[in-house]
Amino acid sequence: MLSLRQRALVGGLASGALSVIVGTLAVLSYIDSRVSNRIDSALRDRHTQLVVGLSVTTQNPEALRDLMFDPSYSAPYSGRYWQVTSSDGQIFTSTSLFDETIAEPPASPQTVTLWNTPGPEDEALRSAYQKITYEDGTVWGVSVAENQTLLINERLSAQRNLLPVFGLVGLIGVASSLLLMSIIMGPLRKLRTDVTHRWDSDDDLKPTDYPNEVSPLVEDLNQLLRRNRDIVSGSRRHAADLAHALKTPTAILRNELQSMSESGIETNIAQEALDRVDAQLGRSLARLRAMNTAELSHSRTDISHSVDRLTRLFSTIAKRDNKTLEVKRDPDLWVRMDTQDVEEVLGNLLDNAVKWSRSTVRFTAMRQQGCIEICIEDNGPGIPKEAQREALRSGGRLDTSVRGSGLGLAIAVDLLAAYGAHLELGTSDSLGGLKCRVAIPTNIATALM
Amino acid sequence: MRILLAEDEPHLCDQVKKLLNAEGRVVDIANNGTDAQYLGTTEPYDMIILDLGLPERDGISVLREWRNAGIKTPVLILTARDGWSERVDGLDAGADDYMTKPFHLPELAARVRAILRRQSGQLNPVIEMGNVMLDTRNGRVTVDDVPVDLTAQEIAVLTYLAHNAGRMIPRTELSEHIYEYDGDRDSNTIAVFINRLRKKLGPDLITTVRGRGYMIDPG
């Protein structure tokens, strides 16, 4: 579909071209008609002069040549001619016609008839003709003619002179259309900028900042954005309520089974079934969260703030286990990602790293070209290359001897994918254990395309 | 040791209470955020187990209010909210530990012991008082390595004194920490429990500070 700017350009060009063509035709037609009228009027005058001249020389038409004293009638093929034809077919002409004659209209009009006819040497002549009966009873066809070539040339010359002027007028018309469109589009451009900035501030757009025609749209947009935000937060709240509603009963069941087991009752099958319920619950809630995530993908988060919060927690956990968490980060690491999702991803990765490391976990968060790169390395056993894919799969768990749902890495992958970010597993060069590399694009719109 | 359990699910309350009672702890239950906030503010608990999804008032706001009021009672958050943001929020609000549901009762018991030990500066789960040993993990008491049978309330009195060894404990404080909120707090019964403990564990373990209270020598 054409953009508004393209529409303005096409519309401007079309209206400009139409204006120029119509204007040119109108002006040229006006010039034509003015020149034709002038020639016709002059022809009538000369015809009258010839009729009067012939009235005194009907018995001696040859004398007309002397009577019609205009020098143009004397020069051969001068473009200005007269001719009189008697009723018996004798033709007397101006010297300028030399040995040629002027055609006469097929009818014999009693009034002056103006018409176009070819002349000597294929000249385009404009001729005035009338059949006149004089007082002495003689009947004469009286013609005067004038070459129109001059007129045609004049018209062509006028066209040549006027066309560039009209072209310029057309261009001015197109430019004006574009300027007008640009002015009209101003509020829409502002709306787009304001909507983008709105994600950062969470403030509503101000309808009073826009023209009357746009402000209802701004109101609607505000409502739509509010509704969107409410749906997403409501959905998350629903997921949290669901988690609470289901996890508490499963905790009760688990505790009852524990008591029964301590009393010597076999509960392994029931416990395994409950484990499956817990795992499925965790997976479904994580997926629900990741599905809602895309709706929040415009909210901005300073990762450095989340990093500080999480490393404060995990430093304490690591210290309790006689381990060290080394943290190195750039300041102001802004990405378009929901804070809770950032913390869920980093929390899961740090939890794994602290759990599996022998003594050291290293966390780095750096600004790179087009993305924020976060690396979490440890000196634990790592994951063999062939098993890394399984570790990233939803529900995949490599070592069942360490407690956990096995969802941590898979949840991180799902959440990152919703933002066009990704997680890679590898081996740490410096520490020898697992290296998790997360790359979060700084321009989310590009990443999601 | 007296513990406030702020949890709205009655079956889970029963399970946790039974578990903690078995270790000689006294447990009060608050089923909603308002009661939890009131009890945590007015009663001298040794620790609080707090669910975040309480009716009437959210657990985090209750916890913030306690901390703002200067109440330093250790708090263990026990919740279905397992996101890392919520964990950090909970710990930043002043919680001492965070457990997510579903959980294993033995793990909860271990976390409760760890918090109570940290609170009293005891690093070892087995508290040694001369020839008397108290294993806080199961409430077992031995004298010269010989097991001694104690009632739940005797264990409660001994545990509180042992966790506060070296400090003189007034009778009223002792009764506040071994009886439930609705329990009959006759301070004369304290003297009965002390006498029984002396008979079972030896006359020199608990010192009476006349007119003031009781004390166990830190050894």
Automatic annotation (TrEMBL), chain A:
Gene3D superfamilies: Histidine kinase-like ATPase, C-terminal domain. InterPro entries: HATPase_C_sf (IPR036890), HATPase_dom (IPR003594), His_kinase_dom (IPR005467), HisK_dim/P_dom (IPR003661), Sig_transdc_His_kin-like_C (IPR004358), TCS_sensor_his_kinase (IPR050428). It is an enzyme of class 2 (transferase). GO terms for molecular function: phosphorelay sensor kinase activity. Residues 241-444 form the Histidine kinase domain. The chain crosses the membrane at residues 12-31, 162-185. Keywords: Kinase, Membrane, Phosphoprotein, Transferase, Transmembrane, Transmembrane helix. Its EC number is 2.7.13.3. It catalyses: ATP + protein L-histidine = ADP + protein N-phospho-L-histidine. One of its GO terms (cellular component) is plasma membrane. It holds the Pfam family HATPase_c. It is found in: Membrane. Coiled coil: none annotated. This is histidine kinase. The lineage of its organism: Bacteria, Pseudomonadati, Pseudomonadota, Alphaproteobacteria, Rhodobacterales.
Automatic annotation (TrEMBL), chain B:
The modification 4-aspartylphosphate is found at residue 51. Residues 2-116 form the Response regulatory domain. Keywords: DNA-binding, Phosphoprotein, Transcription, Transcription regulation, Two-component regulatory system. Pfam families: Response_reg (PF00072), Trans_reg_C (PF00486). One of its GO terms (biological process) is regulation of DNA-templated transcription. SMART domains: REC, Trans_reg_C. Residues 124-218 bind DNA. GO terms for cellular component: cytosol; protein-DNA complex. GO terms for molecular function: phosphorelay response regulator activity; transcription cis-regulatory region binding. This is Transcriptional regulatory protein QseB. Residues 124-218 form the OmpR/PhoB-type domain.
